[in-house]
Every structure is written in structure tokens, then in C-alpha cells.
């Protein structure tokens, strides 16, 4: 999940962990995940290894667990977009979607702002690891992804057996990978909050999209992103956790917890939201960048890309400034403008 290709941030939730493993030899070779919940105790990986950064992290899929691979792209117009999610989740995992444990969900918005969502159930998910990266094939859907060992490039390949979903979606990374603590060096925490993991293989990318879904073609270049989230238990309300990542020109400026706040603004800006709170008009991001200054940014959506129970996703624009104090004690401010793809979960 992400806010933008210039500034990456998110609103997150709370959870408790069921079981934990931090061994780095848990996923050799190929992993096959049948489309069914197993009764065993779920394990949840919480530390980085020297390999397999993008590998499955929850073993096996339990009733309240989830483990997914998320790929997105948004065009320079802030309207056209594509999201492909390869999902595994328990039927009671709190997340929106069908009562399935393995499926692929494709969401796209066309140039006229029309949004479409396709959900394809599968018989199993297959994931293999190579260095830090992964390759995946979601069973009988014949939809897959291929990643290189150093996380510099991913391809999502759409080649449905019936020919109704075809095309290629390529991401070429332009920003370093990160976890919640910033570094991907071995031994770093992957917990965004208790029981919830976050691994961002491609925080920002040059994206090339050329796909055809049931006769509707979507073709553009723009900005892209790939991460994975996972967890093992249900969320609990009324706790706040903040984590962010900011990179510029291929270098991380700051990454980790407690330096960034994200708040809704404009219409429907009640915080924390309730079950009756409407869709926020936008969000405001404030981040302390240390010696680099202070970031202030506003996000506004152009189009609603997806809307489900307790969940929304939007494509739009982000504008912001980084203000810093110069050596002669004057304040210098630099403005940025970009496209954004962002989402919100509301479990209240």
C-alpha cells in the first residue's frame, strides 16, 4: 500500500500476534499454498533475512491470517491506473473481498475515470524465491509475476487461459527497498505494528502497462509500486501506529516509525473515523526529515479506483513542499507535484 511515488506513507491499524518465527531458512525452493484454510497454528515472520525479502511470510494460511503481493501503477494524468493483487487470506481475516482463500484481484481505471474490478478464484498459489525476489503463479488463473533477485525489476504477466485477460505490466525500480525500520539488512524488524508485516520491494518505479481485460485495453506509462503485507490475527481498535518512507533521487531521506503523521482533511475529515464516516476529501502528510527539513503535502483524489466494505482506493495528485533552514538561517522551500495511488481501511 502506498500514498505516492514521491512520498510514501500510510495509515495503519492494530493487531496481536499468534505465533512467531524469525529463522531465515524457512522457505527453500518452491512453496505451494492450496486454496483452503489449514487448522495448524499460523506462524508470522517478523525479521529480515539475507534472502527472500519478498517471500511468503505466513505459514500456513489460517482462519484470520492474510498474505498478499500487491502491484500498482498510475498514469501521469492521475486517472488511469492498474492494481493487481495476488491474495491469500482466511475467511475471517477482516479484509474485504470474496469468501475465498486464494484469488487474484485486478482493478483498473480508464482515461474517462470508469473503474472495473475482476476477482478470479484459483485452486492454489505457487511462489518461488530467487535472492531477495520472488516469482508467483496463481493456479488455474494463469496470472503470474516474475521478479529479479536484486528487486530491481518485476513483471506481472496476465495470460488467462480463456484469452479474456492478457497483457504485461512492468515495474523498473528507481528507489531502494525497505521495511518498517527502513533497512533490508538481515535481522531488521518487519513489523509495522504487532502482528502486521510490511515489506516494500519497489517503493517507486517507472511503470509500463499494456493490458486487455475483457475487451477493454489499458495502455500507459507512469509510476509504479510493489509491496507485500501479511498478518496472523484480527485487528483491534483505538491504537495508532505511524510509519513512513521518503526517498529522493534514489536515496532514502528518512524511513521508519514516528516521524510522520497522516490525517484526513476537507470533507469527512473526522479522526479517528467511525463506521459512518464518509470518504475523506483528501489527506495531509507532515514529516520531520531532520536536517533535510519538514515535509508538508496534500493528497487529493481524481477518481475512486475501488470501493468495498471498509476499504477505498483512489488515484489522484499530490503536492507538497520541503522547507529547510539554510546555513545563513533563512528558510528555503522546494515544491513537488506528482501522482498518487492511495488507500484507506476503516475497521471502526
UniProtKB/TrEMBL annotation:
Gene source species: Stachybotrys chartarum (strain CBS 109288 / IBT 7711) (Toxic black mold)
Gene3D superfamilies: AttH-like domain (2.40.370.10)
SUPFAM superfamilies (alphabetical): AttH-like (SSF159245)
Any one Pfam family match given in the protein's UniProt record, by short name: DA_N
The protein, known as: AttH domain-containing protein
Domain of life: Eukaryota
The AsqO/PenF-like C-terminal domain, residue ranges: 231-345
Keyword presence, rRNA-binding: no
Domain Diels-Alderase N-terminal positions: 41-230
Keyword terms, alphabetized: Signal
Signal peptide: 1-19
InterPro entries (UniProt xref): AsqO/PenF-like_C, AttH-like_dom_sf, DA_N
Amino acid at each position: 500500500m502506498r500514498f505516492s511515488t514521491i512520498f510514501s506513507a500510510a495509515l495503519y491499524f492494530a493487531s496481536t500476534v499468534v505465533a512467531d518465527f524469525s529463522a531465515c531458512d524457512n522457505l527453500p525452493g518452491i512453496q505451494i499454498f492450496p486454496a483452503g484454510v489449514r487448522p495448524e497454528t499460523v506462524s508470522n515472520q517478523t525479521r529480515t533475512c539475507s534472502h527472500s525479502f519478498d517471500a511468503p511470510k505466513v505459514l500456513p494460511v489460517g482462519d484470520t491470517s492474510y498474505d498478499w503481493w500487491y502491484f500498482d501503477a498510475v498514469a501521469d494524468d492521475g486517472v488511469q491506473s492498474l492494481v493487481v493483487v495476488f491474495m491469500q487470506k482466511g475467511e475471517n481475516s477482516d479484509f474485504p473481498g470474496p469468501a475465498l482463500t486464494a484469488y487474484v484481484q485486478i482493478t483498473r481505471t480508464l482515461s474517462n475515470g470508469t473503474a472495473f474490478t475482476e476477482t478470479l478464484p484459483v485452486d492454489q498459489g505457487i511462489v518461488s524465491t530467487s535472492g531477495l525476489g520472488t516469482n508467483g503463479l496463481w493456479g488455474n488463473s494463469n496470472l503470474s509475476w516474475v521478479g529479479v533477485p536484486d528487486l530491481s525489476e518485476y513483471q506481472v504477466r496476465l495470460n488467462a487461459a480463456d484469452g479474456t485477460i492478457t497483457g504485461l505490466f512492468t515495474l523498473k525500480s528507481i528507489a531502494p527497498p525497505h521495511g518498517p525500520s527502513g533497512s533490508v539488512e538481515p535481522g531488521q524488524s518487519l513489523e509495522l505494528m504487532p502482528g502486521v508485516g510490511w515489506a516494500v520491494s519497489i517503493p517507486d518505479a517507472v511503470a509500463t502497462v499494456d493490458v486487455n481485460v475483457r475487451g477493454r485495453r489499458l495502455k500507459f506509462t507512469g509510476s509504479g509500486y510493489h509491496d507485500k503485507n501479511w498478518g496472523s490475527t484480527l485487528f483491534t481498535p483505538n491504537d495508532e501506529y505511524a510509519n513512513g518512507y521518503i526517498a529522493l533521487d534514489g536515496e532514502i531521506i528518512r524511513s521508519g516509525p514516528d516521524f510522520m503523521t497522516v490525517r484526513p482533511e476537507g470533507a469527512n475529515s473526522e479522526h479517528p473515523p467511525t463506521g459512518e464516516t464518509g470518504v475523506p476529501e483528501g489527506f495531509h502528510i507532515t514529516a520531520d526529515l531532520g536536517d533535510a527539513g519538514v515535509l508538508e503535502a496534500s493528497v487529493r483524489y481524481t477518481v475512486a479506483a475501488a470501493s468495498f466494505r471498509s476499504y477505498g482506493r483512489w488515484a489522484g495528485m499530490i503536492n507538497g513542499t520541503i522547507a529547510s533552514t539554510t546555513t545563513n538561517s533563512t528558510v528555503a522551500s522546494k515544491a513537488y507535484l506528482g501522482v498518487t495511488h492511495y488507500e484507506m481501511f476503516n475497521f471502526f
